[in-house]
Amino acid sequence: MSGTQQEAVRPGSGEEPDPRRWKALAVCLVGGFMVLLDVSIVNVALPSIRDGLQASESELQWVVSGYALTFGLLLVPAGRVGDVRGRRTMFCVALALFSLASLACGLAPTSLFLVIARLVQGLAGGLLTPQISALIQQLFRGRERGTAFGLFGTVIGVSTAVGPLLGGTLIAAFGADAGWRWVFFINLPIGLAAIPLAWKLLPPPDERQRTRHDYDPVGVGLLGSGIVVLLLPLVQERQWQGSAKWLLIPAALLLLGAFVLWERRYTRQGREPLVDLVLFRLRSWSFGAGMITLFFAGFTPLFFVFTLYLQTGLGYTALEAGLAITPFAVGSAVAAAVGGRVVHRFGRLLIAVGLALTVVGFLGALLAVHLAPTDGTGWATLAPLLVSGLGGGLVISPNQAVTLSEVPVERAGTAGGLLQVGQRIGAAVGIAAVGSVFFARVAATRGDFADAFTHGLLVATAFVVAALVLAIVDVVVDRRISRRSAESHPAEPAAAS
Length: 497
Description:
The protein is mainly alpha-helical and 497 residues long. It has 18 helices and no strands.
């Protein structure tokens, strides 16, 4: 990324910065926080939901996995619609739908009703999320864009880590019977307040852009079905017994292969595809998308297995388990804000440092659990989780800035949606892999949760190490290209004025 500072531009003007861009960003971040928080906050409420609605284990799994499935389904199509019809409109529609779905979740009289409401809530989340990165691309340039992505990265990291703490606090405040309902109700007043502000502050669509796009419905169908078929066996790994479910993986690859072939044909016809495959020729994009997918495969399962270890293995309450994860949220928030401000200077090297810190933190957590497997585990893991959070904050937001740096603004919604799809797939793969190892060790050791957590975290660490290797390769390649460019185009003396 260039270190030259540029101003944010007002949409359509191409020159002057939009004076409301930071207020617009604040509204975007509120919406993003709500949507991403609901990925993790529900986990600690599952026991209360089970008791309150007499939900089966399969229904509880769908409360969690249904949201992830429908969230991933619409990320890329929603980004495309936002590019075509206007990101402000899509943001407000998605926020309204998410708020209504949250109300329905909180009022759910039965477990089936709750599952359906969660599916709708996930659809709304998938509609909203890609608009945020696209609006950042549209409103900001240069160093300001890095800062804006830094704030968005803070929201991603904090919302994921603080979910168990907030959920545990609400259940403690309102009781086990009603507390889980407030996990959903809390979204309603925030959403209703944010909708009019979003309509006022977010930039309207540029009418000149609308005639340049089409929707590529066949591409939307192929990509959406491919993503769902790929995610289904991963998110249902524990519920669907037997190996037949893994046949869906090659089926998903066939669908995604058909999608690529269709996009190429669509392009040859002179039409605009859902995903411009030229995007993958951009090294910044390809490396960034691959790296963040691997990182989320290691980063997300940490909260899954750690809360299980604390609550099921050690008897921590939901609030206590949430407090134990808070150091990660604090470190992530601080580092993401700093990382966004300096990423223009260090680029992918900063991300590699963040990944290395995450690995150090994970290894520190393994050592802490080995030294304190029962008493004082929450205190023993405080420092390692803080280091991991600092590392994560230097990965997520700087990677978004670097990965999207060369993407044209008019394709920002689609590119941002694809990046989120990679994160969701990575998270699903990581939870399936780490969860399988965790539960297998619990069964093999007859309830030794410390041993299970150790083996699960080793798998998660391997994913982060793979992401680190990819980031290092990118840094090395970038330096070689820069050196060759400098050697073939030596700087010429400045001409006399």
